[in-house]
Amino acid sequence: MEQIGPVRGTRDLIGEEQRRHIHVVETARRIAGAYGFDEWSTPIFEDSRVFSRTLGETSDVVTKEMYSFADRGGDLLTLRPEGTAAICRALVSNGLTQSLPQKVFYAGPMFRYERPQKGRYRQFHQIGAELIGTAEPLADAETIALARDILDALGIAGETVLHLNTMGDLQSRLAWRQRLVDYFREVKENLSAESQARLERNPARILDSKSAADQALMAGAPLIERSLTDDARRFWDGLRTALVRFGVAFEENPRIVRGLDYYSHTAFEFVTGSLGAQGTVLAGGRYDGLVAEMGGPPTPAIGWAGGIERLGMLLAAPPAAPVPVAVVPLSEEAEPAALKALSMLRHAGIRAEMAYRGNARRRMERASRIGAGFAVIIGADEVARDCAQLKHLGSGTQSEVALEGLVAAIGRSA
Ligand code: ATP
Ligand code: MG
């Protein structure tokens, strides 16, 4: 029969890769808990309008990357390309807009139709955090501190730099936008085709362009700093002060604009030099308009998402799989006692294996093949005296232990 491969841009997570993945999620979950974030899970598909409304009809995600389809009932659905819009939809659907603030953590698969390459897939995975219902810059600082602490706990904070920018409030952005359009109109014919199209619709996104020609022109583009209103400037100052108090180091980078269109004030990215063009491992910002787009009341919010694959690739050594203990009955008569010992070890949380068949020699061979640390050997003698021979496979040393003391004996030497 012809083999069927995985869909382009998707990957199976097996062995070391799955362990990297789990380690990222579990670490993030633990730190998020300490910061008071509760985990939510939302469906992986949504009414397409959840994303088309909120990502902005002109964003790359909506125009080129969404996996959308009509289901058998004719409903237009989309495999979620990101988590934030779905969390806001869930906030409104579950009547939580009056119980604010909500601090939400999530982890799961996302889907975007992109050109697959290292660190860029069509099904990928994100961890994310949203702090909904607080307009204070202290909330932004707390959410960013959470991200930094997760990177720290993963041992990769030193490999990333936090780039920070402000997008101002609406009034600041309108003033800045006009200055941008004026600037880029002057040099329009030198812009990439894509950026020429963005010029009238959403000129700020030209700053996000990866084209070399566009990037050269950006050097002289006006910065938002000069267009900030007094309120926006106060917010920007408040954020930087709070970050310093949280002990979070950052670099101001006026070129950071979030790809999605619903952001205001804070925009940030944790960037690494070691993953080539896929250097942004975690990114976020403030999105004060999004909950209202979902049919809820105007609600301020701040959040971020991190790419689990990219974070996992930065981990120095993935956590090792636990070393198993092999249980080896010396004869068929010893099998019931061996199974009892096997259960005892497993109930104590120790990874334990017994080969399904084979004589004692075969089973000892298998114990070393699976990299067992200990063999628990049980023969007729041991059955009679309710004990086992505990053999340390590295050194070959062996000692007799009572079955009731087996878990403790292994625990002591682990
Ligand atoms: P990029 O500029 O790399 O396309 P983005 O701005 O589209 O990123 P976000 O929507 O901010 O990314 O998603 C947050 C994070 O999710 C990114 O920083 C990255 O780590 C990860 N990510 C985004 N798209 C992919 C993908 N296709 N494959 C793997 N990880 C991804
Ligand atoms: Mg992208």
Describe the model.
With 414 residues, this protein is of the alpha+beta class. The chain folds into two domains: 16-169 and 229-314, BirA Bifunctional Protein, domain 2; 325-413, Rossmann fold, CATH 3.40.50.800. It has helices spanning 16-34, 49-55, 60-65, 84-93, 137-153, 170-186, 193-201, 212-218, 230-246, 290-293, 308-314, 335-347, 360-369, 380-385, 406-413, and strands at 38-39, 45-47, 67-70, 76-79, 102-111, 123-132, 160-166, 251-252, 264-272, 280-286, 301-307, 325-329, 352-353, 374-378, 387-392, 398-402. The strands form three sheets. The protein has an eight-stranded mixed sheet, sandwiched between helices. A five-stranded mixed sheet has the order 13-12-14-15-16, with helices on both faces. The protein has a three-stranded antiparallel sheet with strand order 2-4-3, covered by helices on one side. A hairpin with a 5-residue loop joins strand 3 (67-70) and strand 4. Helix 1 (16-34) crosses helix 11 and helix 5 packs parallel to helix 9 (230-246). The radius of gyration is 28 Å and the shape is elongated. It starts with 15 loop residues before the first helix and ends with a helix. Bound molecules: adenosine-5'-triphosphate and magnesium ion (MG).
Q: What is the CATH C level class of the largest domain, in words?
A: Alpha Beta
- The assembly state of the depicted protein chains is single chain
Q: Could you describe the largest sheet, including whether it forms a barrel?
A: 8 strands, mixed
Structural class: alpha+beta
By CATH, the topology of the largest domain is BirA Bifunctional Protein, domain 2
Discrete helix count: 15
Low-pLDDT stretches: none
Spatial ordering of strands, largest sheet: 1-5-6-11-10-9-7-8
**Helical residues, percent:** 25-40%
Please state the second-level CATH architecture of the largest domain: 2-Layer Sandwich
**Which ligands does the model contain, each kind named once?**
adenosine-5'-triphosphate, magnesium ion
Shape: elongated
C-alpha Rg (nearest Å): 28 Å
Give the CATH H-level superfamily of the largest domain: Bira Bifunctional Protein, Domain 2
Strand content: 15-25%
Mean pLDDT: 93
Please tell me the total number of domains: 2
Query: Quick one: how many beta strands?
Result: 16
Instruction: Give the termini separation.
Output: 47 Å
